[in-house]
Amino acid sequence: MSTAVSTAVKSYAAVDLGASSGRVMVGRANRDSLELVEAHRFPNRPVRTPEGLRWDVLALYAGVLDGLRAAGRVDSVGIDSWAVDYGLLDADGALLGNPAHYRDTRTDGVAEKVWASVPAAELYAATGLQYAPFNTLYQLVAARSSAQLAYARRLLLIPDLLSYWLTGESGTELTNASTTQLIDPRTRDWAYGVAERLGVDLELFAPLRRPGDPAGLLLPRVLEETGLTGPVPVTTVGSHDTASAVAAVPATGERFAYICTGTWSLAGLELDAPVLTEESRAANFTNELGLDGTVRYLRNIMGLWLLQECVRDWGDPDLGELLRAAAGVPALRSVVDAGDSAFLAPGRMPERIAAACRESGQPVPSSPAEITRCILDSLALAHRRAVAEAQALADHPVDVVHIVGGGTRNALLCQLTADACGLPVVAGPAEAAALGNVLVQARTHGVVGDRASMRRLVARTQPLVRYEPQGDPAAWRAAEDRLARA
Fold it and tell me: Per the confidence metrics, is the pTM higher than 0.90?
């Protein structure tokens, strides 16, 4: 990696894939400027097949190619996406079927089988990863007797699979690999003992890569299809979208918490070392790896998935009108646990939220505005709990909460989070994952400086909104107590 910082403006394509859409963004950066424009956006529509819920990865790849064609001349390409899911390749490098979706039911009950061989406390001490039923480890154990896994000779996580199709070279990027529950966050290498005890063949994985490592050059056929002129390098970025988003948090010091908002809310801290205590495991905090040896110490919260599913069920009403109506609903009338796995699966979300309120003895929201307010209050309450518990468990106090990602466009959620946490919230940038993707490419190619410089550049160039806490903190404490008793 170059240490000199160039004054030239260079262009970078950031392929940023989310659970509901993908986009190719073009970032133009030097040490004083950072601009991001959308080249192409395309839907990500999972498909329910007789085998289960699957990602349409071929459509995603087509969207990536269309986006690179629209991007025009670029100096590098980087890819980030959601975590845990993977494609299996045979000995010829051909894909053995569409990748399973993390919301598929094939991992139901698998965790208990894993814990019979490696107890949950031992697994956490070795990998630092929170329990989530869809972790890659559980997916591999669920697939143990499948024909696909028997024929597989290579496993590539989603961004690594797309990078392989673009370059013909395979690798396993570390920030995303840390979500598999097969990485030791202290050594930043495979947790060999865990894999051996559970019969997971680590030879399936390509060699580990780190952000900034070269990932190959666009193949001639890719250049021909996209109209780009080679050579065009693909640069390894923080390929877990949360790692890229955290890299773009516009913090000016170390005393900050972050909430990466979108389909999920990932709320936590950036640390120098993992927290592997039993108290941390019991609180279900995860230790995922970030840039430059950092640890993303965070909790997964269901996020705006709750609202997205309700909006879909309601026939896609105007979101702005819905949020304005929700702002007029009395605060904290009813709340649900936004981290409850009962809300993981798609379908009938308004009914399930109403049922959860009924079962806990709270007023039952019925109108879209009431349900929306319940969701946003519940998310803010979950953010409050995560930020407070992370500080206590890591002994790392904070003065400000940074919200990045799509949720920054939801002013009501941002204000409620400030109120709930009792801390100022700085919202922005909305396209944090794409910006972090671009910044790692730019740093690798000598255009920007270190991580602190990257963050200062984001703070100087991107629109940010500050929300100060308002209202009575006691109301949030009472709601938290009410939910704990439910």
Answer: yes
